[in-house]
Each structure stands twice: as C-alpha cells, then as structure tokens.
Design goal:
The protein is an alpha/beta fold. It is built from 11 helices and 8 strands. An 8-stranded parallel β-barrel has the order 1-2-3-4-5-6-7-8, surrounded by 8 helices. The chain is globular and about 45 Å long.
Length: 248
C-alpha cells in the first residue's frame, strides 16, 4: 500500500508572514491525518524561515502521525533530531538563497561525514532517509553510509511534465520516469526503502505513484494550495485517492 507524507511547511510560511500564532502547524497535521495522510513532513531550516524549533517539539508531542524531519546534516540539526526523536529524519542539501530544495544531496561526495550523521541518528532510534537525485552512484553511496531510506528527487520529472504540456507520454517525460524506475530498482536491490517526492501535484502524481516498489510520496505545496479552496482534509483525501488508483 502506497503511503502519503504531507509537507506542512507552508502552513508555517503563512503564519510567519504575519509573525503571529496562526495558522497552527499542529492543527494542520491533525487535519491532514484525518484526511488520510500516513505521515507529516516538516523542514527545520537553519534560518527558521517557516517551521521553528517549538513546532518540531509540539508536533512530536501532540500528534499521533508519523513525523519526518527534513534537515541539513549539521551538528545543530542532528542534536535537535536526537532530542526530539522523530520517526524519520531525511538529510537534504540546504541553501539559504533557494526558495525550496533544488536538488538531491551529494552523498557520494561526503560519505564519511554522512556516515557519522546516520550512525548518530540510528543510535537515537531514528530511521534515516537521504534525498537524492536518481543516479546510481548516489544510491550506492546511500547504501554504504547506512541509510535505510532513499527518497528520489522527482523535480526533473515534474519539470519535464510541465514543459511538455502535461503530456504523460512525451519522450522527455518517459525518459525521466525511466531514470526514476531504474534508481528505484537499485534502491530496493540494496535493501533500502524507496520513497519519492518534490514538485508532485494532482496532475503529475500518477506516473510516480505507479513506479514499481515505491513506498511513500512526500507532497506539500500542491496540497496546501488546494486546501485554500476545499480544506486540508479534503485536499489530502483527493491526493491519496489519486495515488492509490495509480499504484493499483
């Protein structure tokens, strides 16, 4: 059964726009859970531009849904994760100039450091995921550092889908799907869990949900955007239904 992790960062983005206390990310997490979300994803950025330390603590303590903490592989973030103990920590690249995460983590280029980070998180009882591009050397490096989950970056696929006029059968789209499929096979062959995410929406999610062996998709902006008009619970319910039909 394919699972949906809902990223609620942009609920906090809206709150921060007025520097007030609402909307509350905890409330958003509960609504997403009631809509069928299997997990909640948040990114605690080094500049705290949306999710804050107190959000992480409250989400872990007050909700009953799996929490995935996206984080840079810094000593500060590892310390926060080890204290908070989310069910999963996903290591991602981070740049303060970017609007959102723009590419996969270069695991192959920093294996020794990341192996140490994964060991510290594992010792705290946290499942560690790495957000990587669909490239075999990165999959192999992820296995060597001890990651239990690889989340493939679906941004290039989503970009091709959009530029090709939402034609799911366009050659450029199928090429990106093939890359994801091959990387997914490599992940599974090495005993890791295969997740995917980034820039997925109600139009392009089907091809990704149908990938063989994919376990979980992480989707945020599209769901929060739709929730403005129909409510978060229903927006999550609709996305989950699309994923399940495609996976079946």
């Amino acid at each position: 059964m394919i699972e949906l992790g809902v990223n609620i960062d942009h609920v906090a983005t809206l709150r921060q726009a007025r520097r007030t206390w609402e909307p509350d990310p905890v409330w958003a997490a509960v609504e997403a859970h009631l809509g069928g979300a299997d997990g909640i994803t948040i990114h605690l950025r080094e500049d705290r531009r949306h999710i804050g330390d107190e959000d992480v603590r409250r989400l872990k303590e007050l909700t009953q849904v799996k929490l995935n903490l996206e984080m840079a592989a810094t000593d500060e973030m590892v310390g926060i994760a080890c204290r908070t103990r989310p069910q999963m920590a996903m290591l991602v690249p981070e740049g303060r100039h970017e609007v959102t995460t723009e590419g996969g983590l270069d695991v192959a280029g920093q294996e020794s450091r990341l192996k140490e980070v994964v060991a510290r998180l594992s010792d705290a009882g946290i499942v560690t995921s790495v957000f990587i591009d669909a490239e075999l050397p990165q999959v192999e490096a992820a296995a060597r550092i001890g990651a239990r989950v690889c989340e493939l970056h679906t941004g290039p696929y989503a970009h091709a889908f959009h530029t090709q006029g939402r034609d799911a059968d366009a050659a450029a789209v199928l090429a990106e799907v093939d890359k994801l499929c091959r990387a997914g096979e490599a992940i599974l062959q090495r005993g890791m869990r295969f997740n995917a995410g980034h820039a997925l929406n109600y139009y392009n999610v089907g091809r990704i949900a149908a990938l063989p062996g994919v376990r979980e998709l992480h989707i945020g902006h599209a769901i929060i955007s739709r929730a403005l008009f129909i409510g978060l619970r229903q927006a999550v319910r609709e996305m989950k239904a699309l994923m399940e039909r495609a996976a079946a």
